[in-house]
UniProtKB/TrEMBL annotation:
Entry superkingdom: Bacteria
UniProt source species: Micromonospora taraxaci
Gene3D superfamilies reported for this sequence: Winged helix-like DNA-binding domain superfamily/Winged helix DNA-binding domain (1.10.10.10)
Protein name stated in the entry: Helix-turn-helix protein
Signal peptide: none
Length: 167
């Protein structure tokens, strides 16, 4: 066999190996021990005769910032609360531009000038309108001199809402 034929055979063998690797699904990792560790911990803290509780927790690193957060409420407290008071906070998220603004700010674009460079966000007037709306609802805060930040206590709740909305 000539050198060219040997090289061609070696390349064909490599392509066959790579093709096989691409068509075989990676093995599913086994479920870790205590896969519901947060749920198990919550259940241990609840009275046996209670109606339950909701807990959300997260550890997040975005744009060189780290956030750890957990929050829980009993079902009784949640059902007894006036949900209508939450309409303003939730409706502030119900606009594609506002969601994009939150994603951009969380991702590190925090100045009005950086945000104004994104064409899809509209005119400067529209941009300021949306910034006012999500700031008034508490999803953003002014960080001074035309800069904005998602408050630390809102990062994990925001991501939890987005997770729930995605089903």
């Amino acid at each position: 066999m000539s050198t060219m034929e040997e090289r061609l055979a070696a390349l064909e063998a490599q392509v066959a190996t790579l093709t096989e690797r691409m068509t075989v699904a990676p093995p599913t990792p086994p479920a870790p021990e205590g896969a519901f560790w947060a749920l198990d911990g919550l259940k241990q803290r609840l009275p046996a005769d209670g109606t339950g509780a909701v807990l959300y927790t997260g550890t997040v690193r975005v744009a060189d910032q780290h956030y750890d957060w957990q929050y829980g409420r009993t079902v009784d407290d949640l059902l007894a609360a006036d949900w209508t008071e939450l309409a303003g906070t939730l409706s502030a998220l119900a606009h594609p531009v506002r969601l994009r603004l939150l994603r951009e700010v969380l991702g590190g674009r925090q100045s009005t000038s950086e945000l104004a460079e994104i064409e899809e966000l509209g005119t400067t007037g529209q941009l300021h309108h949306h910034l006012r709306q999500i700031t008034a609802a508490g999803w953003l805060r002014s960080a001074g001199r035309g800069r904005y930040a998602v408050p630390a206590e809102r990062v994990v709740p925001l991501l939890a809402i987005l997770t729930a909305a995605g089903r």
